[in-house]
Amino acid sequence: MTWKTATVLVLFIVIAALIGLAIWFQRHGFSAREEPAWYEKTLARHARRIATPAGSKELKNPHPLTDEGLVEAREHWVTHCSTCHALDGSGNTTIGRNLYPKAPDMRDLDTQKLTDGEMFYIISNGVRFTGMPAWGGEDSPQSIWQLVGYIRRLPALSPEEKLLLEKLQRGETGEGKAAAPKTHTHAPGAPPHKH
Question: Cβ(161)–Cβ(88) under 8 Å?
């Protein structure tokens, strides 16, 4: 087989595959209700790894979770993250289940084995072609680092902590009273606001 014949054959196969793919998509469309195929999940994990700069992967959390930081991170989780990731981190919410790809289970080994720097980068910069927004323009770096520390706690939440999260979601303090909205800013220069 000559070089020209091989090139024409490869070109024909590629064109036929593209036509077949176009026909398949025309009949089936793009649905967020389908579970991503194994190769899509593998490609997404690989793309996330490639998209995270090497220097970010090596970053260590400079803000260990203190008692005060835990309170702030828990409140932040409830008001900003639990809509998609659920109070317990499972991703089992109306939005989380219906994203494509679905919101990851933050307690799962695939998430927990990410480095602190990778988590910080993902929260700060988001992940393209998913529902994960970039929070770096809204939240301070310290707030994001506290979330990283809080995400590390999700696999071992006690029943008492889960109950506290439910109360926070309802706007209650630990005593069952309505909590006063907390005024704070997220990023330098951002206007104060209440949750």
Answer: no
